[in-house]
Amino acid sequence: MEKITVIGAGLVGSILSAYLARQGYEVSVFDKRPDPTLHGALGGRSINLALSYRGWKAIDELGLRKSIEDISIPMKGRSIHQLNGQIDFQPYGTENEALYSVSRGMLNKILVEEVKKGENIKCYFNHECTGLDYRTNEISFNTLEGNLTIAANRIFAADGANSAVRESLSKDGIFNAVYEPLSHGYKELLIPAGNNGKHKIEKNALHIWPRGGNMLIALPNFDGSFTSTIFLPHEGDYEEEYNFSSLENNGIGIIGMFQDLFSDAIGIMPDFVKSYGPNEKESTLGTHYCNPWNFEDKVLLIGDSAHGVVPFYGQGMNAGFQDCIYLNNLINNHKGDWKTIFSTFSEKRKPDLDALANLSLYNFIEMRDKVSDNKFLLQKDIERYVSSEHPGKWTDLHYLVTFTDVPYSKAKEIGDLQSRIMESVMSEPDVDVKWKNWAGFRSNITKKILNSLEDSNQK
Q1: pLDDT per residue over 198-213, tens digit each?
Q2: How far from 42 is each of 10, 32, 383, CA to CA, in Å?
Q3: Contact between residue 14 and residue 38 where contact means Cβ atoms under 8 Å apart
Q4: Does the model's pTM come out above 0.85?
Q5: Rg of the chain over CA atoms, in angstroms?
Q6: What is the CATH number of domain 3-46+104-178+290-363?
């Protein structure tokens, strides 16, 4: 039985290990954290996860849907909290589609429990990877008992956005890794449950307070609370927009910001200053690019270690799970030919994740700026109308990314085309008034959109 080493027992590492064990390989899994099945769900700062179609597909292949549905809350759309206090609900789909809010720690615990059931899997927790010698394939660890070095045959690095494996091989010139930080960071806040243990605001929605350069979001938890996240620039002109630098060690400034931008959240977040943690440093966000993702047939990066993206499309975990499906199919098709498996995964999968990186950055702008913009909302209304009247002709980009497994690069290509078409449509004089009041105008606009699609397809 061939031996395989997986670095990282997080979400992607656990799914991958289960897949590899079912393929008949002897798998050793190493993770720097304690065993979550013995010590409880792993903590740490984390924006709540939104599980969608691509992620569910990987979970279904392991037969774990029921266990994970039991710890998930469906979010059927966005609840947009306007500055004037008005709340607008924007559904995600037309067939009752939903994203599922799930705790990273609880999900990881279930996946590790599944991994530990495998007879040909051994798990080693409290083993922090500190480096890899690509010449010998020896991996160094820091453990509770001291330093440890092991020799490995084939290594899968699923050790996250701050991958020690990627960093080690980048220093050696094997990988070309680039990190592009976002100008914004985040802090995790809490909206506590009500006195009766129920949610204070709509349970089955992703809540967004869009305020241009500043944004607050909230995702529901099972205990009636919401994990809330505030996004601010790291630095900037305090007079023009709030930022983490200007609010450092400044409880009064935090109160002022909430009164100015998120006044309707104060009532449901009574301890927001304490939750914000004035003396705590914000967490950073950014995009990790790496090329290639493999070293010969010895080392392969997967998940965030290969392609960490900003969280605004909620696809980081889902993309990592889809990585596992893609890799599993390659293993089935090229059994034992690891050189082909690794190189094909790196070459064919990377364009899709580069596209997702771009889409995720764009969706940040959409979430913080556009979801409360009347012209954008009208555009979405027109798109939904065309989609409902002509199914299959027009499918919204967000739907393609979230509720299908269309390759991200293809979804982006379709989205770019649709954006160009809608830019022309929205430039029509008085489009808002005409669309709402004239059926003939709706018909003409629909024809214009369909003709533009047909012309593009013919090209």
Answers
A1: 999 999 999 999 998 8
A2: 9, 11, 42
A3: no
A4: yes
A5: 23
A6: 3.50.50.60
* Pairwise CA distance, residues 293 & 349, whole Å: 10
Separation of alpha carbons 273 and 203, rounded Å: 24
Domain ranges of the chain: 3-46+104-178+290-363, 373-458
What is the number of alpha carbons within 13 Å of residue 93 lying toward its C-beta? 20
Q: Which two tokens stand for residue 128?
A: 């922090």
Tell me how far apart the alpha carbons of residues 286 and 301 are, in angstroms, rounded to a whole number. Answer: 18
Helix (H), strand (E) counts: the chain: 18, 19
pLDDT tens-place string over residues 101-140: 999 999 999 999 999 998 999 999 999 999 999 999 999 9
379 token code pair: 């555009």
CA dist 200 and 259 (Å) reads 19
Nearest to 402 by CA among 78, 110, 112, 185: 78
Residue 35 in this model has a pLDDT that exceeds 90: yes
Cα–Cα nearest to 13, from 58, 52, 45: 58
